[in-house]
Specification:
Layout: E1 2-6, H1 11-22, E2 26-31, H2 34-43, E3 46-49, H3 55-63, E4 67-70, H4 80-101, E5 107-113, H5 137-145, E6 151-157, E7 160-162, H6 168-180, E8 183-186, E9 192-197, H7 198-211, E10 216-219, E11 223-227, H8 228-239, E12 243-246, H9 255-258, H10 267-273, H11 282-286
Parallel strand pairs: 1-2, 1-4, 2-3, 4-5, 5-6, 6-10, 7-9, 8-12
Antiparallel strand pairs: 9-11
Helix pairs in contact: 1-7, 3-4, 4-5, 6-8
Organism: Microbacterium rhizosphaerae
InterPro entries: Epimerase_deHydtase (IPR001509), NAD(P)-bd_dom_sf (IPR036291), NAD(P)-dependent_oxidoreduct (IPR051783)
Protein name: SDR family oxidoreductase
Length: about 290
């Protein structure tokens, strides 16, 4: 299958590109810069120059392909306004690609987040979150699942997608610890975040592209829930900085999300699609952090 990918040079995207190429697919990938284009060519993909804001380019990429995997997102979480702008940009981009795929029965796989459900791990049957700093993305995801005449699919990612100790919410904790000299966690740190290795997540994106039915959502969750205090403990030890609780406000616009207990299950995904995570879990992978 010839697959068009947005976000193909990111932590998840680079793993997805390698996974697809390794299983006989060809890849056309959006590239925002010369360096991104060079990295994609070196990996074996064909770059298509443009950004998520270039709707005509996105339509062309979708038109030239037999399926689309959308991974790109503006990861500026510094202010609510920046988050809202990124959500609006993504919504327009997905709409443009969906217009090209509608009525063709081709797959459009988009990325989503695992929801938080009070008192239990969330499952694939739970709806996308309707509140929180990035809840607006649920509208975009639902538009994909409802796409007429195409195979719209959502792969829900946990709060931390990691590789060699970097990535996701845990990666933000690490960057904060480097900048402040303190490995912090909100509240008592007992809240749990799900996690997955980027290489395991890539395998699920491929499986969903190849065989998932239209209108379905899947959970790329390997660690059902890791306590935030345990993450901070590893980060603090690796960086040789103290570990302690910090006010929720210290974590910026994502503070409320950081303080929420949000474990998630992937039992249905594993059983139905045959997905089996094989790479290191989050706490083991955080041991790769360098001082």
């Amino acid at each position: 299958m010839r697959v068009f990918i947005t976000g193909g040079t990111g932590l998840i995207g680079s793993a997805v590109v390698a996974e697809l190429l390794g299983h006989g697919h060809t890849v056309l990938a959006l590239a925002r810069s010369d360096s991104a284009a060079g990295a994609l060519e070196a990996a074996g993909a064909e770059p298509l120059r443009g950004s998520l804001a270039d709707l005509d380019t996105l339509r062309a990429g979708a038109r030239r392909s037999e399926g689309v995997i959308h991974l790109a997102f503006g990861h500026d979480f510094t202010t609510p306004e920046a988050i809202a702008a990124a959500i609006a940009e993504e919504n327009a981009a997905v709409g443009a690609m969906g217009q090209e795929l509608g009525g063709t029965d081709r797959p459009l796989v988009t990325v989503a987040g695992t929801p938080a459900v009070p008192g239990r791990p969330s499952t694939e049957a739970d709806p996308q979150p309707a509140s929180g700093p990035v809840a607006g993305r649920a509208i975009t995801v639902q538009s994909v699942l409802d796409l007429a005449g195409a195979r719209g699919i959502a792969v829900r990612m946990p709060r931390t997608v990691h590789n060699n100790g970097a990535g996701g919410f845990a990666g933000i904790l690490t960057r904060m610890a480097r900048a402040s000299g303190v490995a912090g966690y909100p509240g008592d740190g007992a809240q749990r975040w799900p996690a997955v290795h980027a290489l395991d997540a890539a395998a699920l994106f491929r499986l969903a592209l190849e065989s998932a039915p239209a209108g379905t959502a899947w959970h790329a969750v390997a660690d059902e829930g890791v306590a935030v205090a345990d993450m901070a403990e590893v980060i603090g030890r690796r960086l040789e900085v103290p570990v302690r609780s910090l006010p929720v406000e210290a974590f910026g616009p994502l503070g409320v999300a950081f303080a929420t207990d949000q474990p998630s299950s992937s039992a249905y995904t594993r059983e139905t699609l045959g997905w089996t995570p094989t790479h290191p879990g989050l706490l083991e992978d955080l041991e790769n952090i360098q001082r």
